[in-house]
Structures are given as C-alpha cells and as structure tokens.
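Recall that a protein's primary structure is simply its ordered list of amino acids. Everything else, from secondary elements to tertiary packing, is in principle encoded there. The following example makes that idea concrete.
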Amino acid sequence: MNVSLITLLNATVAAAISFGIEQNLLDKKNETTAWFLRIMYKWFKYMTGRYYKYAISHHNEEEYTEATACIESVMDIFRTMKVSKSWKPYQTYYVAKQLWTFKRNI
C-alpha cells in the first residue's frame, strides 16, 4: 500500500485527535501528537508548495513572516528533540533542508 506522508500528517487527523480528547476518548497527553501533526502539516505545505499562496517570498510580508516562523519552529523541534538519547540522521535532514530553504529564499 502506497500512503502519502501528507495523508498522515494533516490537520484533519490532528482535529480528530483533539476531538477525541474533548470527548474523553483519548488521554490529554495525545494533544502533543495533535500539535506535532498540525505543525508538520503546515511545514510540509510550505516546503512542497506548488501554489503562489504557499510560496516563501517577500511579496506578502505577513505570509513570509508566518512561513519563516513555522520553518524555524520545526527546525528548533528537530534540533532539540531526543530520540533514544542521541542525534538521529533524519534530524540532520530536516535541519539541513530548512537551512537550504532559508538560504535559497533570502
């Protein structure tokens, strides 16, 4: 089965988790997962955007500020997260990808 990453990392899944918490079907600690899905979905839209609306440019300073804040947040998440008490190769990928994006769009 071929499942796209965007299928899993989306705001609808995050909303479903939040709804489950509100209905006492899920533990409150799952809100962290919902938050992570929301921010990764937003990051994915900016990093793979094919439409002008999601382009990272100075044409709309408010959108640019929002996009760069999102990308910086994801970069901080991957820089500081601890997985099995050591740095993992995928963390390097995410940080490098974002640094490349910033350099390209400045």
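The longest helix spans residues 61-80. Residues 1-48 form one domain.
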